[in-house]
Design goal:
This protein has 20 helices and 22 strands. With about 650 residues, it is of the alpha+beta class.
């Protein structure tokens, strides 16, 4: 049979009356005709909750069989029941009659007796209502199942959240707290009921208004862009503890999405990291101190990994090699300054026990290469760096040996000079003794020569020859006397003397020596100069040393010029000692006044050295310098003030004479 349309009366085809206006909010009054299985099933489907959702209300049930199951179930529900359909049709508030008897006769009877405003659905159309109600029932079951699943998921999620050691807070878009975990409640001393529904700033920070309104930062709002781009936002928040001490929390904000990918909630995970931050700060301070120690060390320090990549390159190493830290660590390698074959050999030594403890290399002489290609002698001390028994790199300390080697050479040269000085001192003492021994025979020779001269009074030629003997003997006696005076000269005794006398005394001792036979000596001494005040013994050593040095420089052949003058403003003497030798090389001019410096071979010179010579001049308040004319030769310029005040010193004035 064809089912009538839903918008018409099933029996007459009249349109079903639509309820509009205020009546649309009122439940639809329904009467059921037929209390059999179908009627009973329909009553069970249309329970009170479903009637409420469908906005209907079952007013009563009619059936001629008083024992019909639907009629009995209706009584249990306290619904109106009757065997007369006219009584059902007459119920107040009735809007719809549902006929489920399956009888055409009953359906026709209902069509005749129902009021015009009451609609009728026959047993055929009731099937559609049945299906709709079953769909609603299934939908309700699915909804209940979904809600059960959601509730179960929430419980499981809450269990997981409660087991985490971090403080967890889930916040809704309106900043109300959806949930927190047990760690959160314990650390803040709260209950779940006290948190539910409150604002996050109230629960989290105990504020009465949002964080932004109190001058703070709302991570949920202000960092939303970062959260959307990165998927999370993490920061460290510093705050004051109970005693005012600084405390630190690490806070991570992550979004919660719905099935459409929209952010519906925010999850905040936080935990206190004060101890960790303090340890990190201490570690950072220690690291800075360690770096400062490494960088401030004079020696070069290099740390490399197992492949030779440089990890640390201190300032001492920069000064030693000429490379910058950036050049080596970003662009260079250990092999940039360290012969890689030597490096491998040193690593073998460190791994063996034949060159010190295993893993270490005692100071070893080697060389490194500078950026400019210069080879620098160094000593290397190194160690292998291990972590958990595994080699991760090595550290080397490079000590520049240039100054040490130079000092060693200077000490060796000084030793030779000291040996020579001792020889000269011995010669000086011996000269004094020899002078005494020679003086007595010379005196005897003079006496006998004078006696012989008297006997030859009648022999002019004989007297002339004897007089030559006497003159030469007197000359020898004078030389011996001057040598004896030189060897006995007291040191530190100040007297006044003429500069002409001082220079003449020095020349008299030297000009007759073989070294000066082919040297022409020219003196240019201004007349009428005031007398010089000083230690004549010390100054005699100065000029004697300069004259001998000049003769050595000219290799016994040339011109020695001694010029002396007086300058009144300020009052001082100027003495210039010039030679025609090859001059002093440019690279040695800064060294000639260094202690014990000499270019002469062992056994040459007086042993005083230009350093001691200049020291004597400085003790007299003067200065000493050199000039090297372009044409060759050397000029020593000495300037000594007229007024002399001796400067006490603990340094030796000269070496070579012993009183």
């Amino acid at each position: 049979m064809k089912t009538p349309p839903l918008n018409s009366d099933s029996a007459t085809g009249d349109p079903v009356t639509l309820i509009r206006g205020k009546q649309a909010n009122q439940p639809l009054g329904v009467g059921i005709v037929g209390g059999g299985k179908i009627g009973h099933g329909l009553l069970m489907l249309l329970d009170e909750d479903r009637q409420s959702r469908l906005k209907i209300k079952i007013l009563g049930v009619a059936d001629v069989d008083p024992d019909a199951p639907g009629l009995g179930y209706a009584r249990e529900l306290n619904l109106f029941t009757t065997a007369d359909i006219q009584e059902l049709v007459a119920l107040p508030g009735l809007d719809l009659i549902v006929e489920v008897t399956g009888s055409q006769e009953v359906n026709e009877s209902l069509s005749r007796i129902k009021p015009p405003h009451v609609s009728l659905i026959d047993h055929v159309s009731a099937r559609l209502l049945w299906d709709l109600v079953k769909i609603e029932k299934e939908k309700t079951a699915l909804e209940e199942a979904r809600q059960t699943y959601v509730d179960q998921s929430k419980r499981q999620t809450q269990v997981i959240l409660d087991s985490l050691p971090y403080r967890i807070m889930v916040v809704n878009p309106d900043l109300t707290v959806e949930t927190v975990n047990m760690t959160f409640l314990k650390e803040f001393g709260l209950t779940r009921e006290a948190v539910q529904g409150r604002r996050c700033f109230e629960v989290r920070y105990g504020l009465s208004k949002p964080c932004k309104e109190t001058g703070g930062v709302c991570y949920l709002e202000d960092r939303l862009k970062d959260i959307q781009e990165k998927g999370f936002f993490s920061t460290i928040r510093e705050y004051a503890g109970k005693n005012g001490e600084p405390r630190f929390d690490v806070i991570t904000i992550a979004p919660i999405f719905d099935e459409n990918g929209r952010i519906v909630q925010m999850l905040e995970a936080s935990r206190e990291v004060t101890d960790r931050i303090r340890l990190e700060n201490e570690a950072q301070k220690s690291n800075i101190f360690f770096q400062n120690v490494i960088q401030s060390t004079v020696d070069g320090i290099v740390v490399v990994d197992t492949k030779g990549n440089v990890l640390i390159f201190n300032e001492g190493m920069e000064a030693l090699t000429g490379y910058t830290r950036t050049e080596i660590m970003e662009e260079g390698h250990l092999s940039s300054f360290y012969n890689i074959d030597v490096a491998k050999e040193n690593m073998k030594k460190m791994r063996s026990s034949q060159h010190g403890p295993v893993g270490k290399l005692n100071a070893t002489s080697m060389s490194i290469m500078t950026k400019e290609g210069e080879e620098i002698p160094v000593t290397l001390s190194a160690s292998i760096i291990t972590i958990d028994g595994k080699e991760v790199g090595s550290v080397g300390v490079f000590t520049d040996m240039r100054e040490i080697l130079q000092m060693r050479k200077e000490l060796e040269d000084a030793h030779l000079q000291l040996v020579q000085s001792e020889k000269i001192a011995s010669v000086g003492r011996m000269a004094a003794g020899v002078a005494h021994e020679i003086n007595n025979p010379l005196a005897g020779a003079l006496i006998y020569a004078e006696l012989l001269k008297e006997r030859l009074s009648d022999d002019p030629q004989g007297r002339s020859d004897i007089q030559e003997v006497i003159d030469q003997t007197l000359r020898c006696k004078k030389i011996v006397a001057e040598l004896l005076e030189f060897s006995r000269r007291s040191i530190g005794q100040t007297s006044s003397f003429s500069l002409d006398y001082l220079i003449g005394q020095c020349l008299n001792l030297l000009v007759n020596q073989a070294l000066f036979h082919d040297i022409r000596v020219v003196t240019e001494i201004e007349p009428d100069m005031p007398e010089m005040v000083g230690d004549i013994g010390q100054l005699q050593q100065v000029f004697t040393n300069l004259f001998i040095n000049a003769a050595d420089a000219m290799e016994g052949k040339g011109l020695l010029t001694i010029a002396a003058g007086y300058r009144p403003d300020p009052p001082h003497f100027v003495i210039k000692v010039s030679d025609t030798g090859p001059g002093i090389p440019l690279e040695l001019r800064d060294k000639i006044f260094d202690i014990f410096f000499t270019t002469k071979p062992v056994g040459k010179g007086t042993g005083l050295g230009l350093s001691i010579t200049r020291n004597i001049v400085q003790l007299h308040g003067g200065t000493m310098s050199i000039e090297c004319p372009p044409g060759g030769g050397t000029v020593f310029v000495i300037e000594i003030p007229l007024e002399f005040t001796e400067t006490p010193t603990v340094e030796p004035v000269f070496v070579g004479l012993d009183e």
